Amino acid sequence: MQILNSQYRYGLVAITLHWLMAPAIIGNFALGLWMTGLSYQHPWYHQAPQIHKSIGILLFMALLLRLLWRWGNQSPKLEPSPHWQILIAKLTHRVIYCVLLMIVFSGYLISTADGRSIDVFGWFDVPATIYNIDGQEDIAGEVHEWLAWSLIVLVVIHALAALKHHFYNRDSTLRKMLGMPTK
Amino acid sequence: MKKLSLLIMSALISMTMQLQAQATEYKIDTRGAHAFVQFRIKHLGFSWLYGRFDKFNGNFVFDKSDPKASSVQVNIDTRSLNSNHAERDKHLRSADFLDVAKFPTASFISTSFIPGKDDTAKLNGKLTLHGVTKEISIDVTNLGGGKDPWGGDRQGFSGTTEIALKDFGIDFDLGPASQTVEIMLDVEGIKI
Q1: What ipTM was assigned to the predicted interfaces of this complex?
Q2: pTM for this predicted structure
């Protein structure tokens, strides 16, 4: 498989990034939801947030790489579709990127609100930059939760649209991202 | 006519009484931060965890010659909880604990002040926390008071009490060693 994208399909880097980030995003959402309901005595009470924060930071780095890759590289041509569908598809992609960026940022603002850094799997620390704002962790927390739910709604729309292209329109939209031969 | 003069008399008397009371009223020095509302709770039974409320205000009335007439009122902004850990503070402010979105204010209004030995006293009153009002008793010591170097007049107290979280409808389980919280009040008031 080629490394770069072509006008027919996505390349190895784009495909790898996409399929690493997709389960990480959904998994981190589920983890976040689960960990906030844990009892104080639960064995994962401390570990789950550590993992959640670490995955979040790694997702941010992957997202930056992905955006750079997208901008420095052509995207495959879209399958012929009605104009409004193309518009919505493009909009959904952009909003997903923006919301993901804001989710990571708001999460970062929660954990660093007192000036503490974020330890990513013990590999490195992300230092606090903006902190000690009145109510920072509470406001950032509200935003984080709302955006996370919004992202999952967008992800569902995105996934349903991909499946619709694959099974209903029977075109190559999903195949391009799976590295499968296109029709 | 007699009734009217009686009315005026009693009004005047109550006014002078109020003036007297005002003469011994103190404003808690939150501006200069010579006042602290702190708490501590055992962590797993291994150590003490300390926290405080950064925003509160209040007044008290105190007269050394008539300590029984003392009274105090304090309002605490529960959103200002600070245990030096943002993630923990966020949790303590959430619905699991103080639910500050719903109950942004805690308050204490005294009902009686019973002087004891030396400069100690029992300060009884109503504590409203997490939307629950309960009678509590605070052990108080009048550490000192008098003229300060800058032309003011101050009185300072130190008080402690212990409350059970359950009594105030906070039932998030922190373990058997962490059922109660000690509250430590250290206030200096400036005469107003």
Answers
A1: 0.84
A2: 0.85
